Amino acid sequence: MYNEIMAVLNVNIDHIATVRQARLADEPDPVWAAVQCELAGANGITIHLRQDRRHICDRDVKLLKETVACKLNLEMCMAEPIVKIAEKIKPDQITLVPENRAELTTEGGLDCASHKKRLAEVVKRMHKKGILVSAFIAPDRGQITASVQAGCDAVELHTGMYANASTQKVIEKRLTELMDGRNFAMENNLVVHAGHGLTYRNIAPVARIRDLCEFNIGHSIVARAVFVGIRQATAQMIELINKSELK
Ligand code: PXP
């Protein structure tokens, strides 16, 4: 089971594959990126195998499973062919997300309340293979309750609304929602992760929230990596997470 005490970083390396796919070439290779992230101290590597394979492809998932020594977290929707791939590859953890073919990135959280039956089935199948299950949800009591009832191990609280907030008042409101979500999830024995839209500029207030034990961050790290390299970009984010005082 989970044993993290302090918050740790999973680097989402989807956009390394996005650059590769822009030319349908064989570089840059997400496997190389994962090695650099691990060497910089990342606790996990996150990849999203989308149904349209727009960035990460099946070959990446297979090779990363063989090469990543830290946690491999596979983001995925609950479509049957994808669920079958997860059962076969057996990542350490899956994070269930909604998937809309037209979206630029994952938009909202998973509606666990409306898909409770399918969610419970997927959780059961993953647990049979020894895979932890996290659900990417809005910090909402109904969604947290549905995740618990379906048997999830963890929830990843969607930080996108916090990241998009443009006034201090709204930022404080979103942080309070995240803390309330954390409290309710923990009362229900869920492990609590967070992610989406987090950057070097907005990570500190979220990293200060006690018991958020895993951050999934992608775009901002890969964007910085273009200029400083992915090892340094990862190390800089870890430093920001670690130096935030918990409250
Ligand atoms: N968490 C989840 C569930 C996501 O779908 C994504 C985007 O793939 C992220 C975190 C990372 O978001 P960002 O790229 O904005 O850091």
Nutshell version of this structure?
With 247 residues, the chain is of the alpha/beta class. It has eleven helices and eight strands.
Question: Which helices and strands, and how do they pair?
Answer:
Layout: E1 8-12, H1 14-22, H2 30-39, E2 44-48, H3 58-67, E3 71-76, H4 80-89, E4 93-96, H5 116-128, E5 132-137, H6 141-150, E6 154-158, H7 160-164, H8 168-187, E7 191-195, H9 203-207, E8 212-217, H10 219-228, H11 230-243
Parallel strand pairs: 1-2, 1-8, 2-3, 3-4, 4-5, 5-6, 6-7, 7-8
Pyridoxine-5'-phosphate binds at residues 12, 14, 48, 75, 95, 97, 105-106, 136, 156, 195-198, 216-220.
Explain what this protein looks like in three dimensions.
This protein is of the alpha/beta class. The chain has a single domain, classed as Aldolase class I (TIM Barrel). The protein is 47% helix and 17% strand. It is built from eleven helices and eight strands. An eight-stranded parallel β-barrel has the order 1-2-3-4-5-6-7-8, surrounded by eight helices. Helix 2 packs parallel to helix 3, helix 2 crosses helix 11 and helix 10 packs across helix 11. The two termini are 25 Å apart. The chain binds pyridoxine-5'-phosphate. The site of pyridoxine-5'-phosphate (PXP) has 19 residues, from strand 8 and helix 10.
